[in-house]
Amino acid sequence: MPADIETSVEKICEVRMKDNIKDYSHSSRKLFSFRRYFVATWVVVLLASLISLAIATPALAHHPFGGQTPQNLFEGFLSGMGHPVVGLDHLAFVVAIGLIAAGIKGGILIPISFAIAAMLGTGIHLASMDLPLPEIAIAFSVLAFGVMVAQGQKLNARTLAVLAAVAGIFHGYAYGETIVGAEMTPLIAYLAGFTAIQMAIALGAMYLAKFATRKFEDRSDESLVQRFGWAIGGIGIAFLTDAILG
């Protein structure tokens, strides 16, 4: 066989081998991505199920000190930090606004507006002013923001900040129940505690979502963040059902 023909055959074989390696590598990546999303989806579903089951024992879910009014600065601060964490509807909402903020320019306005409005809502409760159907409104806010996360919403930061502020008034109103009758020192500590923990959770969710999107997400498929949105929406449905039927 002439040298030039032999060289051409070798080049063709080399090109085909490289193409086969690329195809195999691409298929392996797709298989790995499928497995990762499959596992992640079931983890989210499992977590949502466990959280929803925990709603069955709500007696202490919103009161870190068992419903007792904080008596000092230390108790006020810890109670404030605990309320948004052990109150699963509040926790789910705070995580949701952090996840939404991750994909929006100026998204930091969303958790800030929520935190400020929550303090206002607490003040409304302490002023003995009533809000209509607060538990239903809170549960609906969890559902709505969870669905927005799941759908990859396209609203701008200002609009979402306004919506978060409206929800914050109702969440803060619920927070106020724990601190009714407290003196000024534990009251201020309580406000500082729940504001600090909410901002920490929201910012943590926001930066983790940004990191996950940048490092792990396959843009051609539904993202892991969106799957968490569906889980949050499921929690909202559970609380909304409980609020309506309970």
Spans of at least 5 consecutive residues whose pLDDT stays below 50 are 52-61
Share of helix among residues?
over 70%
Provide the β-strand percentage band: under 5%
SS-based structural class? Answer: mainly alpha
Give average pLDDT, whole number: 79
Order of helices and strands: HHHHHHHH
Rounded to the nearest angstrom, the distance between the terminal CA atoms is 87 Å
Largest sheet: none
Comma- or semicolon-separated keywords:
single chain, mainly alpha, 246 residues
Which SSEs are present, and which pair or pack?
Layout (H helix, E strand, L loop, with lengths): L2 H52 L18 H14 L1 H15 L6 H18 L7 H18 L5 H23 L4 H32 L8 H22 L1
Structural overview:
- The chain is mostly helical.
- Helix content is 79%, strand content 0%.
- It has 8 helices and no strands.
Q: How would you concisely characterize the structure shown here?
A:
With 246 residues, the protein is mostly helical. Helix content is 79%, strand content 0%.
